[in-house]
Amino acid sequence: MKEAVEEALTELRPSLAADGFDLKVDSLSGDEVEVGLVALPDACMDCLVPDDMMVRILETSIRRRWPEVGKVVLTKHGF
Length: 79
Known about the structure:
The chain is α+β, with helices and mostly antiparallel strands. It is 39% helix and 30% strand. It has a three-stranded mixed β-sheet with strand order 1-2-3, covered by helices on one side. Strand 2, helix 2 (51-65) and strand 3 (71-77) form a beta-alpha-beta unit.
């Protein structure tokens, strides 16, 4: 499961890195994954999509690799 989530995050990282953000797995429990959105020092806060849209993007990418995922939770770091 964690490998599938990491693969999904790796796919999304380049587009977020361009605006100064990164992704990390905060926790993985059962069929729920908590993904951390990390704002790096040069992050463009105006460039970030709304939280609900970010969760949908994460869910879509993760489900392609792990169809059984139940819930994706977004947490923010460095904001």
